Backbone:
DNA sequence: TATCTCGGCTA
DNA sequence: TAGCCGAGATA
């Protein structure tokens, strides 16, 4: 388990927003409830795989809220989850629906998880179509502080990752065999889950330091943050994941942040170099 | 060289 | 704000 923690995707009506969808929760190290650890052990999915680096947040588990008792239930596989998500609007989820993987499942079972146990949840849209057979829909959560919360990729049966609808369209026109097999654009959705608390996503144009008083701004941000938020920001600053991607600018930013952390007095000096 | 990741641009 | 994709770093 890495420093960044895991995410939980939950599907069902959200108490806070009264919407139907899926949620993603950030968890801090050691906070995952015991029953959730158990549930995770049963989950088979790329998205639920432990991230070796511990730097890239991942989806921790899939959960659905029962439309009757409103308790959250773990979904053991992404396949089940995707099926439920696709049809949850027309076919609400009930505890009894879990009998497919837990024969004795019922509303009288104790609560498995509550969104309140976690600091952050992200809402997935209901009605997202099941990926075509042999294709996989990947949700890749971005690190805290990124301009976007996550990315969606579709992995083709040949292993190619497609990151937008136009790319899928292009791929299908280059590979008509998939079209012949019934694959079409309507089976793809690149809608990412929306965090209920936008704190993990940097606002557009927002920098980590204000122009007026960089060091104070930074301290304020960290001081105002909930423990998990400062945790995430600190993680990103101290040891960002430059596994592929990233730019020289980012690398310099990292060097800068690292320096800023070890040498707080140098905030102003370095910031002037990076204010643009 | 392919892949991964981040972030900027645009609607 | 979401979708798209360019570009740099890494494997």
Residues:
């Amino acid at each position: 388990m890495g420093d960044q923690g895991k995410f939980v995707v939950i599907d069902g009506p959200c108490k806070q927003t009264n919407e139907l969808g899926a949620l993603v929760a950030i968890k801090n190290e050691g906070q995952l409830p015991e029953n959730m650890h158990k549930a995770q052990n049963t989950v088979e999915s790329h998205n639920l795989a432990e991230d070796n680096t511990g730097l890239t947040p991942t989806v921790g588990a899939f959960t659905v809220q029962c439309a009757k008792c409103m308790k959250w239930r773990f979904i053991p596989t992404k396949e089940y989850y995707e099926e439920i998500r696709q049809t949850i609007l027309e076919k609400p989820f009930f505890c009894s629906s879990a009998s497919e993987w837990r024969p004795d499942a019922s509303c009288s079972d104790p609560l498995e998880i509550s969104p309140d146990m976690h600091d952050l949840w992200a809402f997935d849209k209901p009605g997202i179509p099941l990926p075509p057979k042999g294709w996989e829909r990947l949700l890749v959560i971005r690190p805290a502080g990124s301009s976007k919360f996550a990315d969606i990729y579709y992995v083709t049966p040949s292993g190619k990752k497609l990151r937008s609808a136009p790319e899928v369209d292009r791929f299908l026109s280059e590979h008509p065999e998939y079209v012949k097999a019934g694959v079409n654009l309507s089976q793809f959705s690149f809608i990412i889950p929306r965090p209920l608390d936008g704190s993990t996503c940097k606002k557009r144009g927002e920098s980590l330091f204000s122009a007026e008083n960089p060091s104070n701004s930074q301290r304020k941000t960290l001081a105002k943050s909930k423990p998990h938020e400062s945790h995430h920001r600190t993680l990103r600053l101290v040891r960002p994941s430059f596994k592929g991607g990233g730019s020289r600018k980012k690398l310099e930013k990292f060097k800068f942040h690292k320096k800023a952390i070890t040498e707080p007095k140098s905030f102003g000096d370095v910031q002037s170099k990076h204010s643009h």
Notes: The first helix of chain A runs from residue 34 to 42. The mean pLDDT of chain A is 61. Chain A has eight helices and nine strands. The domain at 6-195 of chain A is CATH 3.30.890.10 (Methyl-cpg-binding Protein 2; Chain A).
